[in-house]
């Protein structure tokens, strides 16, 4: 029987987080994003960005967590990243202070598809919620692709709902619609 747990990311996890991100995007978003864009993503570049996020986070309320499956050996299988919202969390034309100091923004919550349906996403989300509450956040937000029913369903089952904000990302001249979900962190 396999065991799973969540822990803070370590600097030596950055390369594996990048691999998981790239693999997951190429599988989960292949119908949403242009294939040539996904093909051109550079795993080493992503790894450097994750290394910076882990080693030089903008604040102590910015977090990168990893999900681990442990059987005969341990495997990193997913990750979550979050922190106080920046301009990337805002909807178009939304004022900079619209989200408030009590809001945390989820930037990534991914489990590699081959490790899906084993509770890793739920463990990542539960561990994140515990840390967000410790950090004094009262609301969480996350942008999801409108054409990603799996993420919408996963978050929706835990109380996340659209907050009315929408945007479209310009991905190589293709507009990809997103909607913002939110949830109260009240116990």
UniProtKB/TrEMBL annotation:
<dbReference type="GO" id="GO:0016746">
    <property type="term" value="F:acyltransferase activity"/>
</dbReference>
<dbReference type="InterPro" id="IPR016181">
    <property type="entry name" value="Acyl_CoA_acyltransferase"/>
</dbReference>
<keyword id="KW-0808">Transferase</keyword>
<dbReference type="InterPro" id="IPR000182">
    <property type="entry name" value="GNAT_dom"/>
</dbReference>
<protein>
    <submittedName>
        <fullName>GNAT family N-acetyltransferase</fullName>
        <ecNumber>2.3.-.-</ecNumber>
    </submittedName>
</protein>
<feature type="domain" description="N-acetyltransferase">
    <location>
        <begin position="4"/>
        <end position="182"/>
    </location>
</feature>
<dbReference type="Pfam" id="PF00583">
    <property type="entry name" value="Acetyltransf_1"/>
</dbReference>
<dbReference type="InterPro" id="IPR050832">
    <property type="entry name" value="Bact_Acetyltransf"/>
</dbReference>
<keyword id="KW-0012">Acyltransferase</keyword>
